[in-house]
Amino acid sequence: MPPLSRQRWPVPLPDLFYLLCLVALFGVPALGQTPSVTRVDPPSWWAGHTINPVRLLVRGTNLGGAKLRSLNPGLRVSEVSVNEKGSYLFANLEISPALPAGKYSLLVESGSGSSAISFNVEAPLDTRSNFQGITSSDVIYLIMTDRFADGDPSNNAPRDSSPEANDRNNPRGFHGGDLRGVINRLPYLKQLGVTALWLTPWYDNWNDVNRCDKPWCPNTYYHGYHAIDYYAVEDRFGDLATLRELVQQAHAVGIKIIQDQVANHVGSQHPWVKDPPLSSWFHGTLTAHELNKFRNSALLSPHSNKQDFRNTLDGWFSDDLPDMNQEEPEVARYEIQNALWWVGVTGIDGIRQDTIQYMPRAFIRDLSDALHRQYPKLWMVGEVFERDAAHTAFFIGGHTGWDGVDTKLDSVFDFALWNASVAVFTNKAPMRLLPHQLKYDALYPDPSKVTVLANNHDTTRFMSLTGATLEGAMMHTAFVLSVRGIPQLYAGEEIAMEGKEDPDNRRDFPIAAFKAEGRNPKEQQMFDWTRAWIAMRREHPALRSGKLIDLFSDDETYVFARQLGTETILVAFNRVNRLKQISVPVGSIEVKDGVTLKSLIGPAMQARVVNGEAQLNLPPQMAIAFGVQ
Ligand SMILES: [Ca+2]
Ligand SMILES: [Ca+2]
Ligand SMILES: [Ca+2]
Q1: pTM confidence score
Q2: 264 Cα to the center of ligand 2, angstroms
Q3: Is the distance from CB of 288 to CB of 270 less than 8 angstroms?
């Protein structure tokens, strides 16, 4: 290999020489015909990556008939194609595994001229501190970035936004939260004890405001689910450097980062909508598309008709969310590379994939495979918002569905168990609904891999549900933090925030509550409780990954064991407002007569095992855990 350093930016001599030769041969080309380039996706890649060649999507003008040429033998171009309009060029770029990191240039050239573009070869991040994945030893905490903490007021009113878009009194406006705010609050999160942050999408979204005569206007895309650029960080949240700093600082204190990715659709302000790279890029156009009728059963049932099935996959989530066509191979390659690019440039540990069921299962599999091939521990959880375990289990990886596809998806959210838990702890269903729901774990290849949400930004906050009490919220949180699976909390639940349906459930996190002295007694009680259950989970491997064994349930009470190796922990819930005495059979889990159980949390309590039964006195409206001595 020749020395490669001479190829780095600024434009190395051979490139200039080549350009001058072109000018000498063809003269200065007429303006308007010269190919010009406005961007390249991805803007960078890695040498020695499992995806090689990488597929480039070059946007520009006058690309018709253009070729892409590399002037460095370490970068090889092939399979160039240009769309009909000459506005997009696709090309394979094969990167020599030995190519050093740095800036390189490529040349887009046609008979009427040429245009140089720069392309970065990135230095890979350290695999020991990044890309760690998520397990049941983690506790995930969902942050809606715009609503959590404003660490940089200078980004609150971008030039291309109307004052209306930045109105903090409008629940659908931008409120100023950002990545710097999350960095500033890492000590709070560390104190709470969570080990992973799921941030709502940080792709760049439109900065301005939608106006209409409907009740939901004026509104903005403060939540981030309407990407206008898959390769840029939302300017209101910060920039790529700040994002990388967040990941690095979080990792330094033992907190992982999960990116919310949205491969199913983009925002209607995305430049692709007016000028798609291919006619098959989206399902339909802004003016001619089907809306998703959300007949989601059509995705699960082997008996569904093709029309319902296709509508659920190809219909637009809403009129302003153009649906990407992952069955177009160029789209699939683009999105898989995009997912890997974010992981590679930031060092994140996991991905939450939005509305995953509305994408073909074969695509979910290919995406999962590509992520694991490059980052074996990397973790992706899919949002399959269904209260039916058969439906969510169909989408988790580790088994092959009737369609012959194993999605390889690491995790799904357990909406069925969440649904049961909020019903039980608001007294709308008997306690025995919990073991009844958990029996459907039979459908999962490995139930310890599901993600157990306490709530999220799409659901009513616990304290605003009919029948909610602080005691109920505490038991619900304790259940999420002690049952099998990976627990996921939603910012604000730890201080018993209220909030009805979207957007009320997305109120700003109260600044005062980040510090103990700013919390009212109720907020402090919930905070201490949540922190204590997280700490207990951290200290006891059985609570993180032990086998779950049902021991006792009736209308008011539920007791289960978590058991791992020699460690046995009993977790008990009593939702009635009186002390409850129960005899719990423990012989089957090898807890012998004469053994003492001691409470690990809450009031100091002891129980003896007599005749194969533990005599438990359960405090009123409380969850409690006992360790076997
Ligand atoms: Ca801000
Ligand atoms: Ca923006
Ligand atoms: Ca779709």
Answers
A1: 0.94
A2: 19
A3: no
